[in-house]
Design brief:
Shape: globular
Largest sheet: 8 strands, parallel
Order of helices and strands: EHHEHEHEHHHHEEHHEHHEH
Distance between the termini: 15 Å
Number of strands: 8
Helix content: 25-40%
Strand order of the largest sheet: 7-6-5-4-3-2-1-8
Number of helices: 13
Radius of gyration: 20 Å
Length: 390
Amino acid sequence: MYVKGVNLGNWLVLEKWMSPALFEGTTAEDEYYLPTQLSREVYEARIRVHRAEYISERDFTRIRAMGMDAVRIPVPYFIFGDREPFIGCVAELDKAFNWAEKYGLQILIDLHTAPDSQNGFDNGGISGVCRWSQEPEEVEFELTVLERLAERYGQRKGLWGIEIINEPALEGIWKSMDVPNRYPAVDQEKAAGSGPNTVEFLRWYYREAYDRMRRFLPEDKYIVFHDGFELKIWKDFMQEDRYKNVVLDTHQYLMIAELEGCEQKLEHYLNYVNHTLAKDIEEMAEYFPVICGEWCLFNSLAAGHDTRGGQSVLNGIEGMSEETIGPERKKEIYQAVAKAQLNAWRRGNGYFYWNYKLLTDTVNDAGWVGWDCWDFGRCVDLGWFPLEEA
């Protein structure tokens, strides 16, 4: 098994930095607060138009034409439309399966958010809040969402697998990203008690989710769990014979490596990827199929300034408004880190690039220079991503 894919992020789970226009006229930084600052009619109209236009049938044909064979689709905990005021999106996922099956793509459904959040990131649905795992009734709700997804799509030809939950924060990433300050909570009362998940909870939750989902999922469909940004702590996990086709997902960004001390020079990026990262993946591939479910070419060197671990103008960081790296040098940097990372993923079982597309205007909007490489289509069109290496 080797999978090559892209993420359809910001389609069914919103991220403000990826489509700022959706948030115009509000101070909302995340999906939780958007409907609280718009009328019901305006909110519904924005969401429905965005979902209809952001991803369509044509995108599936393009993804296939670019040589990819799969898509990872982040979905919210309210996908079934049972959590007011949010609007469900199961109809869109149904369409995605029809498109995928017509054009020969596989889908990894990624349950990307949880009530009161599993990480406190903006992409967890509500910034600065991380209390989900402390709330048994919400943990149970999340498990029922997984059961319903497994039941609805378990027999679909286009289903590659289901990911139990995206990026649950363990203590290490909580501290290194300084989540409460990087993603300030709007409501301190709601954020009270927020903190990282425990390894003990995640181990229990992953096993519970596996058992519930396997009631509906054939054994040839993959069940994917995220490493919580601690790749090598899972060696003794789910090794019993009863666990079939369990896949370990690790998310590896150069900006996180920078945050943890990697120097912002090309030779240091390459050394980190070729030695530390590739070896870690190879080591863990002894225990599980390993995929890199999120990664990209983004790095501070090509952006032209220290992004402090991928922080942007939305985090109050003043970005570059003019390119300081020439196009040929930029292409050289991106091609080199692309080749190294693709080689590293080959030590495991594949990858999904983050992200397929980006609606941020990196040319006209100040501070976004260097962020264009989050858009896979642009990377391919500009020759930054070497498809022949993929």
